[in-house]
Structure formats: C-alpha cells, structure tokens
Design a protein that fits this description.
With 222 residues, the protein is of the alpha+beta class. Helix content is 18%, strand content 34%. It has 4 helices and 11 strands. The longest helix is centred in the C-terminal third of the chain and has 14 residues.
Length: 222
C-alpha cells in the first residue's frame, strides 16, 4: 500500500480522544501536507522501511514576535474566514498565504475530526493532503513566520529525535510528545498541538518506532 493510500484510509476519523469543547470556540483548520523530497516523487517504501526516505511533511516556525505561540513549529493554517467554503478551503488558503505553495498541486485526501483547544478556544480541523506536484515554499511574511521547511518524516520518527516536553506550573505537570528536527539551518523543537497531531497520526498509520517516553526535551528558551 502506498503512503497516499495509507493516509486516505485514516481520513474522516478522530486522531485524538474526545476532549471538551470550550464555549464559543472559533473554527480553524490546519494543512498536514505530505510529499516527496526527490524530483521524481515516490511514495512507496522499501521492504525494510516503514516509510520512504524521501517522504516529508510541510511545517513552519512562527515568528518570535507573535503574541500567541511565538516561535512554535506548526502546520500551515489558521481561523476559518467567512469567505472560506469549508475547512479545506481555509487550510489551503492559509497555506498559500503563509508558505507560498501552489494549492493546485495539492490533492486533498480528506479531513479528520475537529480537535478542540480549550485554552485558546479553537476547534481545529486537520486536513490531510498529498503534494502531487510540489512547488517552492518560503517565508511569505516575516511578521508571521520565521522559517518554512519540509521535514523528513524518517527523521521525525527516529527514536533519537523523540521525547516529551514537560511543563510544570503551580504544582501541576503537563507532558506531551516532542520531536527535534534540523531544518533551515537550526534545530527546531516540535511540541504542543502540532506534535500531538503528528504523534497520533504516526501511531494510527503504524509508522511509529519504539522511543523513550521518559526522555525530556527542553522547550526553546527554557
């Protein structure tokens, strides 16, 4: 089964367990876009590989000057505007505005169940896509993004690049999956909502390798 077929098989289902939806949550969407780094795309893994070595996923690093989630690595996406036909249209629009990609080269495979973010009062729909015809990506607005990059999935899955982030406040502790990735000339930590979706998706697809759930990854700036 090709990667595209595997991704198509999981659309329309929840990625994470049901969580409470905050009152007056605002609708948003993110684009989880997979593609192939090589000039000639290949989405079929060798027999001894979980995923093809050239498989990647599009990510961006938010500008450090933003009021919300400064510097965090994220999927392209944002709030659904009144002019957007649906979450898919919103995710593609935001991806074009943030990374400069050409949406006509993206095959939308479908959407996952919306994921509520209680703290920020958003209800986010993940949109799965396959990059049929890749196009150049870049930072379009430096006030919004610090970097745009294509992260090799095999590097994200490498147990040496996996761990957990731990936030301790007021005697309470929050733990979540994390990934480290070398891109755009620096080491990025993928954590929070983006890491939660990647971790859940990799598990659902059967791509995840055993990794150390006790290894703590320091948050940027910590």
């Amino acid at each position: 089964m090709t990667v595209r077929q595997q991704l198509s098989a999981v659309v329309g289902s929840p990625l994470v367990p049901a969580m409470p939806v905050a009152e007056a949550s605002r609708s948003a969407a993110v684009l989880i876009l997979f593609g192939a780094l090589d000039t000639v795309p290949s989405d079929r893994a060798a027999e001894d590989e979980r995923v093809p070595r050239d498989l990647d996923v599009l990510l961006l690093a938010r500008a450090a000057t933003l009021r919300t989630h400064p510097g965090q690595v994220a999927f392209p996406g944002g709030r659904i505007d009144p002019g957007d036909a649906d979450p898919t249209a919103a995710a593609l629009r935001e991806a074009r505005e943030e990374t400069g990609l050409d949406p006509t080269g993206v095959d939308v495979l479908g959407t996952m169940d919306p994921v509520p973010l209680e703290f920020s009062r958003h209800l986010v729909t993940p949109v799965l896509g396959w990059w049929r015809e890749t196009s150049p990506v870049r930072v379009v607005d430096e006030a919004e993004s610090a970097a745009v990059f294509r992260a090799p999935v095999a590097d994200l899955l490498d147990p040496a690049h996996r761990g957990v982030t731990v936030i301790r406040r007021g005697g309470r502790e929050w733990r979540g999956p994390a990934f480290t990735i070398e891109a755009a000339g620096e080491t990025h930590v993928v954590w929070g909502f983006t890491a939660m979706l990647l971790d859940a998706l990799f598990e659902r697809l059967g791509w995840a390798e055993p990794w150390d759930h006790e290894r703590e990854v320091a948050l940027p700036g910590a």
